[in-house]
Each structure stands twice: as structure tokens, then as C-alpha cells.
Amino acid sequence: MTASGGLSVLGVGLAAVVAVLAYTAIVRSTGRSPRELAWTLIPAFLLVMLFVWTALSR
Amino acid sequence: MSRFARLATVAAVGVYLLIVMGGVVRVSGSGLGCPDWPLCHGQLLPPADLHAIVEYAHRTIAAVVGVPLGLLFLAAWRSQRRDRLVLCAVNLMMVLLVPQVLLGREVVLRELPPMLVAVHLAIALTIMALAIVVATTAVVRARAGPVTVAAPSRYPASLAWTTLGVFFLLLTGAYTRATGASWVCPGFPLCDGQLPLGGRLVEIHLLHRLTATVVGASVVYHGLALARRPGRDRRIVVWARAAAAAAALQFAIGVAQVSVAPLPLLQILHLAGGTATWAAMVALAMFVYHATRRAGETAAGAHGEPEPVGRRARPGPRLAAYLSLTKPRIVVLLLTTALGGMLLAADGLPPLSTLVFTLLGGALSAGGANAINCYIDRDIDGVMGRTALRPIPAGLVSPERALLFGIALTVASLVVFGLLVNPLAGALAFGAMLYYVFVYTRWLKRSTPSNIVIGGAAGALPPVIGWAAVHGELALLPLWLFAIVFYWTPPHFWALSLLIKREYERARVPMLPIVRGDAETHGQIFWYSLLMVAVTAVLVPFGLMGPIYLAAALLLGGLFVYYAVRLRSEATPSAARRLFRYSLYYLTLLFAAMVLDRRIPL
Hints:
The complex is a heterodimer of chains A (about 60) and B (about 600). Chain A has 2 helices and no strands. Chain A has about 60 residues and is mainly alpha-helical. The longest helix of chain A has 28 residues. Chain A starts with a helix and ends with a helix. By secondary structure, chain B is mainly α. Chain B contains 23 helices and no strands. In chain B, helix 15 runs antiparallel to helix 16 and helix 16 packs across helix 18. The longest helix of chain B is centred in the middle third of the chain and has 39 residues. Chains A and B meet through helix 2 of A and helix 18 of B.
């Protein structure tokens, strides 16, 4: 594996850990059920991805 | 006659005059009097040239006729919401208006191709027929009560076939004229006193003559037969006589045309007579339909209990039951957004075959998914008042047959998409169907208050499918269209669920107002409405849309948020109803603004 490949895997792993921690924090602070919150956040996340994709392709 | 019926009559007469004016344009050779569109020779007013003025008059009448048609649509949604026939008719009328306007433009820009001319006429005739359906229904509803006149015990199928025959006859006439086959066979019944020789134009001409003879005879027969029966409803008698007279006169004009000379006046009269025959037949068919229905209801009422299901399931009602399984109103809304996707993808009107087959495949796919949904939800449909009369709980169609019907429609849609459109559009439509049936109906609907948030993805796919049908690949714009419909769905459905939450509660469907209460639902509606408006507006800075769209998106979106704010502050069913109704218009108007924005670059 090259250095950049290793860094990418590390980056994705870190992002996943941060996302899980953030998600847990939101669940605790809002008191909402984890599944319900996921149903709200998943579409919002996809919308942000679409936004970024569009901005980068302009 | 009620005001609504008068409005429908004015709309029908307006479309009739428009069609006749179209004939004047054609006969006078003014079709290209204004070679551009929507301006005429690049100007707002036409130059002092007869052809330009005639063509421009046709366009002006079209714009004027749009007013009563639009008012009729609004009035129907305002005062006739319970009449499904009227609502279906006005919705279809509005859906047809968009391609009709674009087709009018294409007819001019492509210099009058015969097939487009025929399709343009076909849509105009359909719009006129729909206005007549609305007018006749309004007239009959205004005089509801027991039937005191003789009415046929069951609807005469031959009358419906004859009416369709008149429609086909008019199309053959338009095609004959547009291909230049009108005068290849002078004289009647032979061509120049001889048996006609072969050739494409002669064949086209003879097809029209043959159809005119068969259909004309059938119209006269039905007209005379229906007018003669004693005790018949006065309206049926009047329209039966009118249809018979119009058909006979029309036949005479046609014979005079080919026997004497191709006089312009005769040509215009021929079109006017044909259209009048069509109008009279539609009115006659509708009055007979209503008389038959009312006679059936009166007979059922006289015997106390309604007829048992088994006896009621004659071919007519059964056909209606299967149609009802597809949830036609939802299908129309889905097709509207798919049409929007197609118009945006093609930057105008896509190829006619793509347009027709995509709408057909989309209707089959959505109808199939809805029928399977009826099968899965048959237990809760029977519990809820809104759905208790659906075909399965009402006992009109067995659950197994409904499931088979849904699967058959889905397979048919795959065939249409795969063979006549393209595999990507087919795959997306199939994916939407699977998602709707398994993810939404089977999994989310009964398990989470976010059911319609995530489940809404299925209903957001039609514009993407429309785009894929035209291009065979995807792009960013259709994904944004998906996002718009996706974020429109929660406020739309939650407004509805606020209105019928007791029914959902009885059926144990965990809709948001039941699980979290009204106040939380009002808040969620507000935030989702804001998010939706933001999503619509973001298309402009990305250069995907222009200023016309921006103005419309902000105006329409602002109104949407206003209704959401009022719902939050008033917290009443009427506020929820207002928002729900407006949300139906919103999406159609937003897509229309997108199409306009792409067509009129500023």
C-alpha cells in the first residue's frame, strides 16, 4: 500500500469515528431515538454531498 | 345551469373556436405566417401581412382560451373536490396544456410536419372533450334526484366505440390534409370516375373516406335510435339529434369538397363540422353515461340494500375497480414531474415517441406499484374511512387478483421502458417501484414516524426517470429535481396526516402527528418547508437555472412557507388543508417555471 493510500484509509477511519462520536453526542443532547435521528440526518448528509459535488463540478 | 357548468361550457366553446381558427390558419396557408415563436417576425405584434395576422390571431385566441381553462381548473379544485370525474378531467386538461403549447411551437418551427399537426389537433380535441365532460357532469349534478325518464339499463358500449371512432376519423382527416392527400382522388364515390389506383397518398385518402363512411353511418344510427326512444331525457334527445345532423351535414360537405372544387370555405366548414360532431358525440355519450348511472342508483335505492358485490361486478364497474387500484390521481402527479424532467432534459419537447412511451411506461410502473400497495395495505385500508372504498376492502377485486394485476403492470412497464425507451429509465422506474413497495410500504410505513421522509424517495424519482428517458444518462440537474421533490414530500404528507390522523391512529400507522403530537408536526412542517425553499433556490447560484425560475421559486416558496407559518400559529385543520391544497399546485407550478426559464433565456 502506498503512503497516500494509507493516509486515505486513516482519513476515512478518522472521519467515521468523528461521525459516530458526533452522532452519539446529538442523540444524548436531543433525547431523540438513534434510529429516528438517523432518518433525518442521512438525507441531510446526502444533500450536503450533492451540494459539494455540484460546487466542485462548476 | 350553475356558474361552474357555464364556465366549463365557455371553455369548451373557446377550444372549439380555437380549433376552427386553426383550420383557417391551415386552409389560408398561414401556418408559417409567423416563422418564430412566441414572437412574430421577432416582434410582439405581427407585421401588416395577412398570413402573419391570421397565424397571430390563432395564437392570441389560444392565449385567451387559456384563461377559462385555468379558471375551470381552479374552480374545480375549489368547489368540486368531491367529484372525482370532474377532478380527473380538469387535472388531465392541465397536464395536456403544457405539451399542447410546446407542440404548437414545434409545429411552427419544424414547418408543419404532418404527424405533429395531427397530434396537435388530437390534443386540442381531447382538451375540448374534457371540458365537455366537466360541463355535462356539472349540469347533471346540479339536478340530482331520482330519475323520472327512461334510461338504458346499461351503458351502450357501441356508443363509446362510435365516439372514439369520430376521434379517429378527425385524426385521419388532419393527416390527410397535412400530407397533401386531400385532392388525390377527386369525385365521389370513385376517383375521377375510376376505381382508385394504389399509392401512399391515395391510401391515406381512402382510409379517411372509409372511416368517414363507417363512423358517419354509426353516428347517424345512434343519434336517431337514442332520440326516438320514448320518455328519454330531453338532453339526450337534443344531443342525439345534434350528433346525427352534424354527421350527415359533415358527410355532405366532404363529398362536395371532392366533387366540386377545393374551396377554402368548404374546407373550413369541413373541419368545423367534424369538430362539432365530436363535441356532440362526447356530450351525448356523457349524458347517456350519467342517465345510466343514475338509473342504476335509483334501482338500487328502490330495493333497499345495494346489490351484492358478485352481482355488481359487471365488466364496467370491474374495469373501474382495477383502474382505481392504480390510484390514478397519484399517477397523474407523478407523471407531471416526470414530464417536467423530460422537458428540461430536452430543452423543449422531446421526440414524440420518447414522450409517449415514457409517460406510458411511467403510468404502468406507478400504477403497478400502487396496486401492489393496495394488496399489502388491504388490512388497514378497510379500517380507514379515506381508503375503505378501495377495491379490495370494498370486495370488488380479490387480493390475489390485485397483486397479479400490479405485477402484470410492472412487467408491462419494464417491457415498454426496455424496448421503447432505454434501460436506464427502466431500471430507475423498477427501482422506484421496489423501493415504494418494500422499503416504504412493507418496512417504514408501519414502523417509524419518519416513514414518509425516507419513503418519499420513491415519489421523487419520476423527474430523474424523465431525464434519463431523454438522455440515457444522469446529470446534476435531475438529482436536484429529486432533492426538491424529496423535501417537498414531508410537509405535503404531514399536512394531510394532520387532517386524518384519527384514521391513521385507528389503523395504527405511526404518523408524526400521532407519535409526536400536532405542535411538533407543525414545527417539522415549517423547517422542512424552509429547507425545501433553500434547495429550490440553490439551483440559481450553481447556474442550473436563471432569473425567471428564481423569481418563481422565491414567490411560490414564500407562499409555501407563509402557509406553514400560519399552520404553526393557527394550529387548525383548515390551515392544514390550505397548506395541503397549495402543495399540490406548488410542485406543478415550480416545474412549469423551470421549463419556462430554460425556454426564455434572459
